[in-house]
Every structure is written in structure tokens, then in C-alpha cells.
Amino acid sequence: MKSYSSLFKIVLYGRSSGNILIATILSFTFSITVILCTFGLMDGFDHLLKSGLRHSTGDVVMTSKKGFYKLDEPFLEALNEFSEKATFLIQSEAFSIYNSKSTGIILRGVEPESFSQVTGLNLSMDEGEIVVGEELLKQLNLNEGDNLAITLGQGKDNSLPVIKMFKVRGAVSHGIYQKDLRMAYVLKDDLASVLNVGKKVNMTLVQLMDPNKPIDDLEVVNRTVRDMKREFDPEFIIKPFWAEYNYLIEAVKVEKFSISLVLQLIVIVAVFNILAFVIYIMEKKAQEFFFLRAVGLSINKLMVFWVVTISAIWAISCVGSFFLSDLFDLALKHLPMFQVPGEIYVLSSLELKLSTESFITVFAIAFVWILIASFIGYLRLKNKTIIQGLRQEFNS
To answer: Is 245 among the domain residues?
Structure first.
């Protein structure tokens, strides 16, 4: 232990050595933080997107190729084999009109209680009332209690569009910009009476798990979808909740892998800084190191010392990157400059979502790089004899 203590004193002796060590740790901390934040942004995007989709569709979405269908006894019995929690709704395209502003929307007729149980999206409305997405509320400059005109087509040949007035009950947030801009909800009976569809529906949402808790294993949903396709008539289109944005989710996975490879260049640059620090110490303090070797310090002990020192730099950098990533996450949530345009990035805001697997992956790769730097330093010492080290002199 005394020999190791002497080695640490040699390394840290002098103002320049300490400054270089601090700069080395900061650069390595920053490089790890960049990769962590990239992983966190990708996983956070995936998490927020899937959460927003579940809050509007439940776990499984059922529609029919024929459009509207009856909720007869055989259909309900088959559905109960997979889940006892489902909600039946009517979905239609429409136009909303307010103060000479018009925009296309997706209007859903829902049963608020069952819809909230399946999706976790709390809706509260009475007859003749409408709940709109929060972005639609902003775009039309609506206030609670305003009357909003909705224009719907009845789907019959030579039929004129129907205009129905609804009182705005409030706004709802799905967490997805496009849905907040285009979705609106009324009671199912109100929409059914306008479209003259009676008791028929054109969409069924099924809940498999608690909508307020994230799904860790998406294969559960995939397996249920496959089983339901075998059970129900081929006229039914059965999809998992993420099917609408599946292309985007797959793209994020590919980008996460690609960007993580590119960002390894940042780690390599930081490793070069560590290597420069190692070489600097080896050259600057060579006589002291070789003096200790002359009085009995083995090359193996010196190697252990460098591994411990490099590992300490790695450990401090990992702890620092953990706190820096938390700081960046707070900035994403609270600073306006980090808010992203929802019409481009789907989500109006982002957050970091770092799993244990992400931390282990990033820290392990960084540790491999840093061990390479320590091994190079070891080779520089090993290739010199004790006499060469003791005779080494430096020009000022």
C-alpha cells in the first residue's frame, strides 16, 4: 500500500499534472454523457410515443373491412376469451368550424367510463358536449363553454353534410402532437344519432394490461393479436396499439444503433486525452517511477496501479455523467429552448428514459476503451529498462 501511495503522490505532484487530470476526467465525463443522453432521448421518444398511443387506442385495436358491425352475442363471447375490458366506439372524419376557422378532425363517439378504463384517458362529458385535443383548442382559440360546429357526412349517396353544434367541455392531452391537434370526443349516442348507425360501431379497443403502467414485454400484445386473428372472422382488422406509428418506432431503433456507433468517436477522442495524460505522466515522472522499480517495485504492481488509476478516472466520469444526464433531463422538461416542434417530431416535448441496460452498455464500452489506454501506458514502461528510465532527462 505504501508503494501505491507513493505512486499516487508522484502522479499528482505538480500543478500541471493535477490540471491535466481534471481536464481528462471532464472530457471523458462529457463524452459518456453525450452517449447516455442519446440513448435516453431515443428510449424516451419510444416510451412517450407508445404511452401516447395507448392513451388513445388501448392495447389492441379492432376494426372491420365492412365498416360498421353489430355487437352480437358470438362477437362478445369471443372477445371475452381474450379480455373482459373493452370499449366500443364510433369513429368518423369531420370538420370543426369556429370563428371562420375550419380544420379536419377525427371525431370519436365514446362511452366515457369504459373508454377511460381501457385507455387511461379520463374523459368527462354530457349529452351535446365535446372534448377536444389541447392543440386543437389552442389552434381554434376555443374556451370551455364555447359552441363548436362539427360538419359530418352521413355516408349515403346524394346526402348532404350534417352540421351539429356541440358545447366545448374541455381539452384532453394524448401526449402526441398530431392526436392533440386532430382528435375530438363526443358521446357515442350523440354521434350514432347523427350518422344514423343505431347500435353499430366501427372500432373496438381492448385492454390487456393496466393502461397507467408501461408494457415491458410487447410480445404479450403481439401474441394476443395473433390469437385474435385466428379466432375472429377475416373481415376484422386486428392490430397492436403501436401499428399506426410502427414505421417510426422501427426507424428509431435503427437510428439508435447507428448513432451510438458514430458517437463512439467522441469516446475515442476522450480516450486519446486519457492516453495523452498517461504518456505525459510516464514521460514527466519516468525517473521517479524507475527509481521505485530500482528499489523493488515490480512491473506487475505498476501495472495494477495504472489499472486502478484508470479505473478511478472511469468511475468518477461515470458518476459525473449520471448527474449531468439528470441535469439535461430537467432542462428538457423545463427550459423553453429545448421544446421541440411537435408537428415535426410527433411529440411536443421529450424526456430521457435510461434503463439499467443502457447504463451498463455505455459504461462497459467506455471501460473497454479506457483499459486500452492503460495497457498502452504499461507497454511504454515495460519496453524500457530501469537504467534507461533513470538516465532519462527532459529539456525545459
So the answer is: no
Tally of domains in the chain = 2
Q: Is residue 127 helix, strand or coil? A: coil
Q: What does the pLDDT look like over 82-127, one tens digit per residue?
A: 887 899 999 999 999 888 888 899 999 999 999 988 888 888 899 9
Q: Which one, of 108, 207, 115, lies nearest residue 124 by Cα?
A: 115
Together in a domain, 215 and 261: no
Whether 74 and 95 map to the same domain: the answer is: yes
My answer on whether 268 and 213 are in the same domain is no
**Nearest to residue 263, comparing CAs of 321, 346, 189, 177?**
321
CB-CB contact of 61 with 54 (8 Å)? no
Last-in-domain residue among 197, 213, 240:
240
Whole-angstrom Cα distance, residue 36 to residue 42? 10
**Same-domain check for residues 280 and 351:** yes
The secondary structure of residue 232, as a DSSP letter, is S
Q: Domain range for residue 269?
A: 2-51+250-391
pLDDT digits (tens, 9 = 90+) for 329-353: 888 777 776 666 655 556 666 778 8
Q: What is the pLDDT of residues 208-245, one digit of tens each?
A: 876 666 666 677 888 888 999 988 888 899 998 888 77
Same domain, 111 and 30: no
Q: Where are the beta strands (DSSP E) in 111-257?
A: 129-133, 147-152, 162-172, 183-187, 203-206, 236-240
Query: Which pTM value belongs to this model?
Result: 0.69
Query: Can you give the length of the chain in residues?
Result: 396
Question: Closest Cα partner for 152 from 105, 109, 93, 91?
Answer: 93
* CA–CA dist 103, 371 (Å, integer): 59
Q: Are residues 350 and 280 in the same domain?
A: yes
